[in-house]
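Title: Prediction job returns without error message
Component: structure pipeline
Severity: low
Priority: P3
Assignee: unassigned

Description:
Job completed but the reporter wants confirmation the result is attached to the right record. Sequence as submitted:
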Amino acid sequence: MQTDSLADTLRQRRQRLANLFENPVVLWSGKPSARNFPANVYPFRANSHFLYFAGIPLMNAAIRLEAGKLTLFMDEATPAQALWHGPSPSRQEIAQDIGADAALPLSELLHHTTAAATLRVQDATTAEQQRQLLGRQSNGDQDLALAKALVQLRMIHDQGAIAAIRQAAAVSVQAHQAGMVATPIAKAEAEVRAAMEQVILAHGLTCAYNSIVTVHGEVLHNEHYHHALNAGALLLADVGAETATGWASDITRTWPVSGKFSPPQRDLYDVVLAAHDACIEKAKPGVEYRDLHLLACRILAEGLVDLGILQGQPDDLVDQDAHALFFPHGVGHLLGLDVHDMEDLGDLAGYAEGRQRSERFGLGFLRLDRPLQPGMAVTIEPGFYQVPGILNESQRREQYCDCVNWDRLEQFDDVRGIRIEDDVLITENGCEVITKALPTSAEAIESLLKR
């Protein structure tokens, strides 16, 4: 984004906040956390609420917002920092780039926190600084009102945000293509992961989350990469890029290591794909995201009945949560400055006012329960998994003994996990699949693997 365009976008965002929230706001960027000694730190990621208004991932900085005006608080780089990290822009230069109305040393923040609302950052050091300056933890009514205003503001993406998400998505698509091309000659998951993340790094981006590249797709957030790639296995890759300013993408594809799905793998893959396609077809303004989830559940149940894995009427099976034996998570989540956008606020963003997370087995992990609106970005990611901790749990096995043909299920033992995930932008009349350049059909995936 050009500097002038960035400054204009940021000015518009803080003016919209001023229209929703009258009190002053102070947001901190946070600091890098040490791994084992102070100079050896984890990769720094600025707080997302700070990034939304500041636009640049500054370390150890804060901004004050009031009546559409922004004051930047940060210190100039010290000679020692310049020695180790090279020259950096001055405070005034940064302020000009982001359209700040004033720029002051960080020590001056002490005099500008009166009656200010804030949101707690993740790193403990900065959180303690917040507490000391504000004289309280960031959990009062004023902060809750700010959080609600930010949810309302950040839920609907402006053109700057959409452009950044598109950039992340385009690189993520290339990363997945590289992973598919690397698979036939790779011996272990780590090699495919390296091929995918190399594309992201080569574009100057980072990973939006810890990559999942695994033949053990039944482990939903598997972050181990040492398993061998044996013929007959399915490889599940959930890898997404993040721009330098924090905007994320999130894509999952599942493909056969050997280059061709076995008949049982293909049967289950097509069931998951049918759920994926149906949800995308129905996604439009006014549709309840929870209904998309239940649509995915019903199509999965119907497909599993057709394959002889589940027994009964699909609607009844969904009502009993029998489908959740194989699809325990929700069909997706918000996407934006974080891969699970605004989940630092708990369910405040994901759940509409007055709604609470269900305790049902088949709904308890639903991350988003609100009507879709133009400008929202969400993921659609149904799946099928054979999770031993679920399928072998005696109470659940007894509860669903009449719903599952366990003998038939054994004929699908070469399927550990399948997930198909795309990023979707809700438009005025429907939706746009931002990641559509990466195919989902089994035939197209097999074709890519032949390269």
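Comment from assignee: result matches the submitted record. The mean pLDDT is 96.
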